[in-house]
Write a structure and sequence with these properties.
Layout (H helix, E strand, L loop, with lengths): L3 E2 L5 E2 L7 H4 L6 H15 L11 E8 L13 E13 L3 H20 L2 E14 L12
Parallel strand pairs: 4-5
Antiparallel strand pairs: 1-2, 3-4
Length: 140
């Protein structure tokens, strides 16, 4: 390998290139991935009423076997995510859950660099979506 010349004109040996698997890896904590997923679920939903519980997520991160990995030889991680949320009703619950799944998958892959093979959406509660000024009472 040819050397490099520094500012003073002295020759230094060239830096060795280290293969990606030997450089190490960044580990993202499960709780950080859960926060990313919770935030993404909030972004995917219309605004909730003040008394609603914001979405929360639980995450299981698994490192894939050493034989599989990214195209550059680095090991990849996958995150299986469960998001619990409240939804307004009446609404298209299936479409809202689908949008949450899509957005959570997209954001975790982009921000954490993880594969997301599964996003399970659990609807814990439905709340009535009242129009402003509407009389609140019993609904049939």
């Amino acid at each position: 390998m040819p050397g490099q010349t520094d500012r003073l004109g002295e020759t230094r040996p060239a830096l060795a290139t280290v293969a990606p698997p030997e450089r190490g890896a960044t580990r993202i904590a499960d709780r950080v991935v859960a926060k990313i997923a919770s935030r993404a679920a909030r972004e995917a939903l219309p605004p909730l009423p003040p008394d609603a519980v914001p979405p929360h997520a639980t995450v299981v991160v698994r490192r894939q076997a050493s034989g599989t990995g990214g195209t550059d030889g680095t090991p990849t991680h996958s995150a299986r995510i469960r998001v619990s949320l409240e939804l307004g009703y009446p609404a298209d619950i299936g479409a809202q859950c689908g949008e949450v799944r899509r957005h959570v998958t997209e954001r975790v892959e982009a921000l954490a660099g993880m594969e997301v093979p599964e996003v399970a959406v659990q609807v814990e509660r439905l709340h009535l979506a009242h129009e402003s000024g509407a009389v609140q009472g019993r609904t049939r």
